């Protein structure tokens, strides 16, 4: 049996091994080849994560395969950016609608006057008058003044108290010209010696802004905000039940007060003041 001759090398050197071509194997850089054992076998099927579907990182480069979360959205705080714009805009539109109906003797005005006449006298006279008196400037303004003083001393900031004072000063600046322009007659109980000019209600607007601004200055509690809303509802009910105003007079005053309160709320103090937390 003849042996296959092997190349001879120098002493101590191992014999060189030449590459062998094997059936069923692919070359390392064969492009587009398919079959088992091919390093490029993934070229013949759809990739798991297409390059075009990858999410970019923060600097615009290709990110990781899973979706990369974006930067957190900063909180805009209370009342929130959307609410701070949508709520005043909605109330302003409602006020324009009500004022148009009252000035043009529209259907809403007729319905309003029928409801107002039916409501007068349905509650005890003393109770209705007591609730209506809560909208007097002699009652509401001292409450707001005390809240302004407490807030200024507690938080040592003048922007929120000043914003509340300006909101209160805007009430007569808006209500008096509107009363003169619309010149709506009052309910039958106010006819003797009464002049035209009952829309919007100055008492309802004074109560809404004074008590609302006081709560915004002193606390962030939703319970106090709810109590303030109930108090203003009681004032409005007293004005209607006593026969001092029509229902739309009160509703128009509330719609006029909301943008003022939202503007004052933009200057509310942070939740924690120097040295003591907010209640």
Automatic annotation (TrEMBL):
Residue spans crossing the bilayer: 83-103, 134-153, 160-178, 198-218, 223-244, 250-267
Region (Disordered): 1-76
Keywords tagged on the record: Membrane, Transmembrane, Transmembrane helix
Transmembrane in keyword set: yes
Ranges for domain Phosphatidic acid phosphatase type 2/haloperoxidase: 162-267
Matches recorded under InterPro entries: PAP2/HPO (IPR000326), PAP2/HPO_sf (IPR036938)
Protein name per the record: Phosphatase PAP2 family protein
Organism: Streptomyces griseocarneus
